[in-house]
Amino acid sequence: MSDAVSGMADASGPVVPVGRAVRVRVPATSANLGPGFDTLGLALNVHDELEVTATESGVTVEVSGVGEGSGEGAVPTDESNLVARAALHVFDRVGVPAPGLALTATNSIPHGRGLGSSGAAIVSGVLAAKGLLEGVVDVSDDDVLRFATELEGHPDNVAPAIFGGLTIAWVDETGPRHKQLAVHRGVSLLVAVPEATMSTKLARSLQPEAVPHADAVFNLSRSALLVAALTQSPELLFDATEDRLHQTYRASAMPDTSALIGELRAAGHAAVVSGAGPSVLVLASDPAARLEAARIVEERSTAPGAGWHARLLAVDIRGGTVEPIPSSAAA
Ligand code: HSE
């Protein structure tokens, strides 16, 4: 915990005023980017939005967009909701009594597709708590990364969701750290999103405990190269997105993803699994190459049983934001 947070408040100290409200906006993310397993991540211009009001007690959640309703794929609307849990985690960590929370979420990030929806939900909750705690306890950006990583387990999705752009995330004895970088303007993004979903837990269970030394060296070289390719030399993206640490091990759980990546790479495109999958991210070195990759995805979508949707996206450079909602405008 940072000095800004530690010991600043206890149960007899200041509390969040009932009626205080904040608005939060958090981007989707693509993690790993090929060789940068659990390390590299990119913020994308698809966003979840959230309004949270401090109430007397209890947790209420209204959801529209992705995850709304009560059927399959609906998100919980009680205290088990991931955004609410993340907000409550912050109050617990900073030692300030949690107010009741009324959440209204408008979600656009697809769930279970490797586009950072759980990381975005966690960052949304953490940023909402930060905003509600304004003037009560200072929650720094480093604290936001720390609290979000405590819930997510690894920092590669939450870092770009918080800071935007390209992020390198690592963990040392002080906790999660990050470096944010601007992506070269020649890089253009394509995300192919399938109808199928993938569980990150399942994907992680397919990873071996140990890997050959040669494979570790292989990924070291490619991930170092990838930082250069994304920031300075997009023409190196194809070589820089090779990986031997995770995609092969997980391929059996997402054969369509593997096949599409194979087809795109055979045509010279820097295609990788987005996060834990099953979406595919293409890091194109120019707009014409991106359109050609999109055509390959669309052609595959017409095959029986295939449901790929090609989305032309951009890098989100702002990251997650939180702002107060004036009391006259709060619901
Ligand atoms: N680095 C993570 C993984 C991203 O691939 O398992 C998904 O949470």
TrEMBL record:
<dbReference type="InterPro" id="IPR000870">
    <property type="entry name" value="Homoserine_kinase"/>
</dbReference>
<dbReference type="GO" id="GO:0004413">
    <property type="term" value="F:homoserine kinase activity"/>
</dbReference>
<keyword id="KW-0028">Amino-acid biosynthesis</keyword>
<dbReference type="Pfam" id="PF00288">
    <property type="entry name" value="GHMP_kinases_N"/>
</dbReference>
<keyword id="KW-0963">Cytoplasm</keyword>
<dbReference type="GO" id="GO:0005737">
    <property type="term" value="C:cytoplasm"/>
</dbReference>
<dbReference type="InterPro" id="IPR020568">
    <property type="entry name" value="Ribosomal_Su5_D2-typ_SF"/>
</dbReference>
<feature type="binding site">
    <location>
        <begin position="110"/>
        <end position="120"/>
    </location>
    <ligand>
        <name>ATP</name>
    </ligand>
</feature>
<dbReference type="InterPro" id="IPR036554">
    <property type="entry name" value="GHMP_kinase_C_sf"/>
</dbReference>
<keyword id="KW-0547">Nucleotide-binding</keyword>
<feature type="domain" description="GHMP kinase C-terminal">
    <location>
        <begin position="235"/>
        <end position="299"/>
    </location>
</feature>
<dbReference type="Pfam" id="PF08544">
    <property type="entry name" value="GHMP_kinases_C"/>
</dbReference>
<dbReference type="InterPro" id="IPR014721">
    <property type="entry name" value="Ribsml_uS5_D2-typ_fold_subgr"/>
</dbReference>
<dbReference type="GO" id="GO:0005524">
    <property type="term" value="F:ATP binding"/>
</dbReference>
<protein>
    <recommendedName>
        <fullName>Homoserine kinase</fullName>
        <ecNumber>2.7.1.39</ecNumber>
    </recommendedName>
</protein>
<feature type="domain" description="GHMP kinase N-terminal">
    <location>
        <begin position="81"/>
        <end position="165"/>
    </location>
</feature>
<comment type="function">
    <text>Catalyzes the ATP-dependent phosphorylation of L-homoserine to L-homoserine phosphate.</text>
</comment>
<comment type="similarity">
    <text>Belongs to the GHMP kinase family. Homoserine kinase subfamily.</text>
</comment>
<dbReference type="InterPro" id="IPR013750">
    <property type="entry name" value="GHMP_kinase_C_dom"/>
</dbReference>
<keyword id="KW-0418">Kinase</keyword>
<comment type="pathway">
    <text>Amino-acid biosynthesis; L-threonine biosynthesis; L-threonine from L-aspartate: step 4/5.</text>
</comment>
<keyword id="KW-0067">ATP-binding</keyword>
<dbReference type="InterPro" id="IPR006204">
    <property type="entry name" value="GHMP_kinase_N_dom"/>
</dbReference>
<keyword id="KW-0808">Transferase</keyword>
<keyword id="KW-0791">Threonine biosynthesis</keyword>
<dbReference type="GO" id="GO:0009088">
    <property type="term" value="P:threonine biosynthetic process"/>
</dbReference>
<dbReference type="InterPro" id="IPR006203">
    <property type="entry name" value="GHMP_knse_ATP-bd_CS"/>
</dbReference>
